[in-house]
Design goal:
CATH superfamily of the largest domain: Ribonuclease H-like superfamily/Ribonuclease H
Structural class: alpha/beta
Number of strands: 23
CATH class of the largest domain: Alpha Beta
Largest sheet: 6 strands, mixed
CATH architecture of the largest domain: 2-Layer Sandwich
Strand order of the largest sheet: 3-2-1-4-5-6
Distance between the termini: 74 Å
Helix content: 40-55%
Number of domains: 5
Radius of gyration: 33 Å
Strand content: 5-15%
Oligomer: single chain
CATH topology of the largest domain: Nucleotidyltransferase, domain 5
Length: about 900
Amino acid sequence: MQKLYVIDAVNFLFRSYYAIGPMTGPNGESTGALYGFIRTLYKLMRDFSPDHLVAIFDGPDNKQHRTKIYQEYKSHRKGMPEDLFPQLELAIEFCDIAGIPHLEIPGFEADDVMGSIAVWAAKKDTRVYLCTSDKDMCQLVDEKIHVLNIHKDNLDVDAAKVKEIHGVRPDQVVDLLALMGDASDNIPGIEGFGPKTASSLLCEFETLDNLLEHPDKVKGEKKQQALKEGKQIALMSRELAKLYLHIDFPKEEMFFHLRIPDREQVKSFFHKHQFLSLLKELGEPTTPTKESYSYLIIDEESALRSLVQFLSHEKILVIDTETTSLHPLQARIVGFGLTRQEGEAWYIPCNGTLGKTKVLELLSPLLQSKSIGWVGHNIKYDLHALANEGFSLSHIAFDTMIASYVLAPQTARHNLDDLSLAKFGKQKIAIESLIGKGQKQITMDKVPIEQVGAYCCEDADFTFRLFSLFSSTLKEENLESIMYTIEVPLIPVLFGMERQGICIDVHRLKALSADFRRQLDLLQEEIFSIAGESFNLNSPKQLSVILFEKMGITPPKKTMTGFSTNADVLESLKEKSPIIEKILQYRMLEKLRSTYTDALIEQIVPHDHHIHCTFNQSVAATGRLSCQDPNLQNIPIRSIEGKAIRAAFIPSKSNFLMLSADYSQIELRLVAHLSEDPTLVKAFKQGEDVHAYTASLVFDVPLEKVTPAMRYKAKAVNFGILYGQGPFGLSQQLGITQKEASHLIEIYFSRYPYVKKFIENCKEQARETGFAISMFGRKRPIPDIHSKNHMIRAAAERLAVNTPLQATNADLIKLAMIDLDTKLKTHPELGSILLQIHDELVLEGPKEGIETLGNLAKNSMEGVFSLKVPLVVDISIGKNWAEC
């Protein structure tokens, strides 16, 4: 063997478990660690092309040798997360089918087995790479043995690198660990001896034995005393840190040779766990045989006339447009893909013999047909492309991207390529193979027509196949109502909003951006003045040094990467120094400047001075719409700066005003309706201020005696309950003890007992069915509700409570938008819908009819559904969005 790669499999799994976070397979099983393990293995194979490799797992009863020396060895560690155990077994299973040798030797830890293999192989003149991030393995590093840290860009740790990282030679690493200890393994070391002290002493005294023999030669009485008192602990710690290198293992070279993977089993394994990106990387050929499909390019007038005539009697047609741009408003059509059934499709190029004008003329009867129901994958984009050419489709029947989302809102995989692979095992033609990527990327009109034709026909064909599959699945899952009464009718509403956009006062925005820059410069000067030096304010590392080393601010608990300077940490340190408040202000302003003022200016379309957002129906798992390019949902509402940004959003005409229609306390009203709590229902029916009302109950005072402080606390409890907030979270928010917070929650539930019952019912229903459901039948699978990991399960329970409220809220406002849009199409002179921001609709219309527009919006939103409590919509009118 020239080279041998020895993998610390458990290290790979643990790192992946915490780095990737919750990730579940189709049956709700945790798969994040397994996925990361395989990804890391493949990275190693891709980067180094090894012939000899072995994955080492801990053997059973692996701590027995060291616990005989020190009973507390690794005793502080929490047990392996329960949902990691099955992934460990699956990792071994994967190694078997992927042809990767592996070992797990009873009675020994992976480190010892790795060390034994490394020493044996090095004696055979093999270059050994120990693939791990564990510093313990550095004790073996020499000319033949290196540590390879895959997770740090394949960092190759030789003897010089060990010295650079740890301050000692490899042969001194065990002594280093004996002095400083190892918190991860509960090796005690000598108290008060950190890495710097330990490494500097070893540089001076060479060995632990020499140091322990001459403690009086060490500077400082405290250190001398610690060395004398801690001698036996240091010697014991050295024994714990030292690797056992005499373990028996297979010593035939062929054992370590990578075998040919069982491709079919690997493919089946990836399918089973829905590892679609890994499936793609297999490069599995899945193109159907020529007999199984018919893809034709239509580029002659007679053929196109015949096709239009042939398709004109169809009730359902799939359409797919190939365009010059991904931006909906800039996309010009290069060609059309059409199909009416599986395995058949036609591509009509606009840049071929006929030319675009003739193609559009001949296709016009089909595109303008009132009887055809059109199906697409993200058909809203196709609507924009058609509108750019002067066409509109009368009847949208189905969208396979949205159907995928309705059926599986908990996943982010709704693109056509992933769905084709997941549902049919079909690896489609990659777009990059046509247009390339990066600086050399070309537009679709520059690609040969034959290539575009094959690509577009494939898109249309597999869109039809998904349509057939999802149509029946929606019926089986009782989700047809969500699809056909909410999501599909909403498509043209959102298309209209995107098309219209919202007007921006560019001069106001530029002035605001300049003002933010001035404030940022001033804040930066003040921060540097307090710090006593200039530094990169956007570097967490440099900021950490300034705050916690130079200024001596006591940091909170250290993380794996050092002392954090994130927002939560800085908020907790605000009282420690005036620099903290200024840093928080700087970050807030910089985010607003970069995300909004400067970015919004770039996104203004010159010909109409409007910004045209894209509203996504297939992103938020609760059914809420999301907004991108730009995202206008996160502009701060209450801050002065946020209001200043909103003030730049203005009506499109001088005689127009803007109007906001906002549901009042919608989620609390839904709690009252769904829980049927008589006290809460009564409060809303009487039109009470529900937070003051709750405060009067919780604090047992008359309504008129409720103070602002009481109301604030009651409001925190009201909303905290919806999001599964416990005593700890509430105590943090209100600045009270956990005991007080616990008492508040207890009293709350005693006053609203049906709310408590509703919350428990939501959790129980999710446990029984595996999903949460809205009043209208929208489902959100919650596979983690049965997770063996307590934290993951608790998060799932919070989702089980919150989802029925948020999802119902989302359904209500979507239905209201559909109703309001229908009314405005009948009376377009009244105005139009511009934005939807969660519970709020933003509209514009002429001054003289603005009250009528407000009444129309109010009636649609309040009348969309009858609850046990009134739905209340607040109307605000202004000259810009901020005034609303």
